[in-house]
Amino acid sequence: MLGPGQTTDVLITANQPPARYYIAARAYASAQGAPFDNTTTTAILEYKTSPCPANGCSATPVSASLPAYNDTATATAFTTTLRSPQKVLVPTDIDENLLFTVGLGLNKCPSGANASNCQGPNGTRFTASMNNVSFVLPSNFSLLQAHHQGIPGVFSTDFPAAPPVNFDYTGNVSRSLWQPVPGTKIYKLKYGARVQLVLQGTSIFTAENHPIHLHGYDFYIVAEGFGNFNPKTDTAKFNLVDPPMRNTASVPGVW
């Protein structure tokens, strides 16, 4: 199970009868009604001692049986069994405790906008948001440039540490929460801070599986689950012994 932009090191145990085998992959899509490329990509793994002549082999490789494109149970069963190869010293004294909701939203299209960019309901435009903030890309300076050069007015530091409105994130979300606020906001962390970040998927408009990546950083995935994250009960599920380290995590419509 790989999210867009995600990398994984894989060890293959060659313990099957010598032959030619397909390595196959297909898309996983959890968002209902969203179009996607439902094709299967394949490669061939061939044992050196497989029964093929020197001029090639016409035998059909052994086919793989793949889960359905929307088989959430299989995708979750895989991601929740990942472990680090050795014990990990996970910090338990947390300096910053953050809860970020991740989901879709709808914004009004500006006048004169291309119709192809406004394919949401009633001529609206789909947008992504975290904690009800939809990122607006600066037009003249990058965030890093503005930070290092002290250029004012490019971004603000008031990105919320938790959703501004508490609601049933994975339930029937009120339409009043479908329109996020546009902004160029950041959340500042102290250097060396120990951060616990809960990424909570939402069902605003529809639930989807979306990758989260922070350039130059890795993080430990200590737990994931369905429904709304409950800090009173779900923290007991944290794997603080050998959690996997990733540079990209998929928010699977849950947490």
Automatic annotation (TrEMBL):
<dbReference type="InterPro" id="IPR045087">
    <property type="entry name" value="Cu-oxidase_fam"/>
</dbReference>
<feature type="domain" description="Plastocyanin-like">
    <location>
        <begin position="2"/>
        <end position="49"/>
    </location>
</feature>
<dbReference type="InterPro" id="IPR011706">
    <property type="entry name" value="Cu-oxidase_C"/>
</dbReference>
<dbReference type="Pfam" id="PF00394">
    <property type="entry name" value="Cu-oxidase"/>
</dbReference>
<comment type="similarity">
    <text>Belongs to the multicopper oxidase family.</text>
</comment>
<protein>
    <submittedName>
        <fullName>Putative laccase-12-like</fullName>
        <ecNumber>1.10.3.2</ecNumber>
    </submittedName>
</protein>
<dbReference type="GO" id="GO:0052716">
    <property type="term" value="F:hydroquinone:oxygen oxidoreductase activity"/>
</dbReference>
<dbReference type="Pfam" id="PF07731">
    <property type="entry name" value="Cu-oxidase_2"/>
</dbReference>
<dbReference type="InterPro" id="IPR008972">
    <property type="entry name" value="Cupredoxin"/>
</dbReference>
<dbReference type="InterPro" id="IPR001117">
    <property type="entry name" value="Cu-oxidase_2nd"/>
</dbReference>
<feature type="domain" description="Plastocyanin-like">
    <location>
        <begin position="158"/>
        <end position="253"/>
    </location>
</feature>
<keyword id="KW-0560">Oxidoreductase</keyword>
<keyword id="KW-0325">Glycoprotein</keyword>
<dbReference type="GO" id="GO:0005507">
    <property type="term" value="F:copper ion binding"/>
</dbReference>
